[in-house]
Amino acid sequence: MVYFMAGSYKKKRSRNANGPKNRHRLAHLTVRARPGHPTQGLLVAGNAVFPCALGRGGISANKREGDGATPLGRMRMISGYFRRDHVAAGTTRLAMKPIDAALGWCEVPDDRNYNRPVRIPYGASHETMRRADRLYDFCLVLDWNISTRKRGRGSAIFFHLARPGFTPTEGCIAVTEKVMARLLPYLSDRTVLTVIR
């Protein structure tokens, strides 16, 4: 896959020209709401700033299953998935797995596999990871309610690709494919994404 410069937040064009300073990895990404647009955000990566989509419920310090909010706080990047039939895995230090037709993600708080990947068909309600809209061509798993799970605190909080116009997500953070391709080489399982207000 060819990595190329992505369009960045217009007011910061000169600041963005050099991309991330650390050529080995990004330790931190920061996301905040775009002023006046609670379902859109600005993602800071090194010395670059990029637009992103946020949840339809804005940013919440009290994340709950189904509220559509992006959780406020720090989330480590754990691993990722990609659609091998659409894109190459790319160069990254994250463990990346291809998405197949049987991959799902459980979203039922009472289920033993809540907020875990499952093989479908699956008895409880789940998200199908092999989407027709290509939002999960790259889908990175954020450590929200995973290392320590609490019933009903939210599931499937990912860093994935955005719809045109950065329309709201169900609580995830989403960027363009160009920005994802630019960031992937610098990401690892030590990268922390922090959502602030």
Please tell me about this protein's structure.
The structure is a single chain. This protein has 197 residues and is mainly beta. The protein has a single domain (10-196), classed as L,D-transpeptidase catalytic domain-like. The protein has helices at 13-16, 177-183; strands at 28-34, 37-45, 48-53, 59-60, 70-71, 73-82, 96-98, 103-106, 117-119, 126-128, 138-142, 158-161, 173-175, 192-196. Strands 1, 2, 3, 6, 7, 11, 12, 13 and 14 form a 9-stranded mixed sheet that branches. A 3-stranded antiparallel sheet has the order 9-8-10, with no helix packed on it.
Q: Helices, strands, pairings?
A:
Blueprint: H1 13-16, E1 28-34, E2 37-45, E3 48-53, E4 59-60, E5 70-71, E6 73-82, E7 96-98, E8 103-106, E9 117-119, E10 126-128, E11 138-142, E12 158-161, E13 173-175, H2 177-183, E14 192-196
Parallel strand pairs: 1-14, 4-5, 6-7, 12-13
Antiparallel strand pairs: 1-2, 2-3, 6-11, 6-14, 8-9, 8-10, 11-12
Structure, briefly:
The protein has 197 residues and is mainly beta. It is 6% helix and 34% strand. It has one domain: L,D-transpeptidase catalytic domain-like.
